[in-house]
Write a structure and sequence with these properties.
The chain is mostly beta strands. 0% of the residues lie in helices and 64% in strands. It is built from no helices and 8 strands. It has a 4-stranded antiparallel beta sheet, with no helix packed on it. Strands 2, 5, 6 and 8 form a 4-stranded antiparallel beta sheet that branches.
Length: 106
Amino acid sequence: AIRLEAGDWDIIATVYWIGSGTTDVNHTILELHTSAGASATFIEGRYGSEQLTSPYVPSANTFKNLNTPVARFSLSAQTTIYAAFQPVFTVSTLIAYCALSARRAR
């Protein structure tokens, strides 16, 4: 999450994820929200998704990444922007790390 002052902001999120050697990943979604724990809303320009060839089983120690497009947020007050990563996978585990970047639009 990133807390921003009022104004126009260009925001992008990147998630880096890795499964164990047996994790079967089908689909991944990364979305920007203004509320924590929000379910997928698929607002155009605020999410990135990847449909993987099933079964996609990454080898251990192989990171993949997923980005949102640069999304413009016009905030009327101080607001926290959240990135939500929603992987669809079976078997084993998956670990994800996310980075958010914001630039004030002029």
